[in-house]
Amino acid sequence: MVVVFRSADYAPHERADATRVAMQEQSVPSRVVLQDPDKIDCVMEVWSYGEASIFRSDMTGYRLLRSSRQVKAGPAEVLAIAVQLSSVGYNEQFGVQQVLPAGDLFVVDLNTPYDYRLPGFGASTCLHVPIEAVGLPYEVVREAATRLAASPLHTLVTAHIGELTRQAERLSADPSAAVLGDTGIELTRALLASAYDMDYARGLMAEVLLPRVRAYVRRHLNDPELTPARIARVHDISTRRLFRLCAEAGFSLEQWIIAERLIGAREELARDAESPVAAVARRWGFVNNAHFSRRFRDMFGLSPREWRRIAQQERSVGAESKQPCDESQIGRPERR
Q1: pTM above 0.70, yes or no
Q2: Which of 29, 148, 227, 317 is the most interior residue, by most CB within 10 Å?
Q3: Dist. CA 116–CA 110, nearest whole Å
């Protein structure tokens, strides 16, 4: 958990100003109006997912206003896709005022004036994605922001942001964190495009599925129950469509999963000299040790045991070469 601000860390008379500064540091130039400056309770957290990030705030009531002058003075490079977690919020932008009950998904274009209000203590979480990476025209974002519920991806994006927030401590530290961020960017693009117009979004809808499938598979490689049927069900598509999606991208889903598992097992065997080969195989989703050994040899040209022996020897040689030399012997003739 990355806590970037906690009002309780400041003396009572400093909390209001410190909170205003922190809110602007984590967003863009704006005017922060605190509902009760004498009773501030605020915690802000940020997690990085490659090019994207998650920002969560839990705090007492406030109002956040961004003017045209502030937009011109400090243009933003990110787009905010937010979920109202608790309490009811209000956001006015593009000439439309939205009531945001808990669980509602909404978009804030930081390069357009807005007026966000949270009347009482509440929480929200926000996915920040680079505007350039989303790559949609301004008019698409503007029109889509007022009718997100029309997108078939509305629930999926809400769940994705929720998962990135709830599991943030683990997921943001995972090697696949950047992939999850890329998935968030692709989902944002497809969400806005489909809310704008389904015909406009049809191609994007197909594009967004593949990175999500890849990210999901990589997170569950060690699960022996990872099957095409389960992957399809999680992504709300048919197994037939899943196979077609992978075939159009030029790879076999099942063979790719096996290859990714074998690569993971090979790396673990090189690091771990103690665990039985069968145990390593099970940790990477192989329930049959003979099948694992056969596929390992087919892919790498060595048995798992042969690979481990060679890898451990190389590690030992590398460790010996890094041993510090005895400086007292430098320049001395060798004894005969």
Answers
A1: no
A2: 148
A3: 11
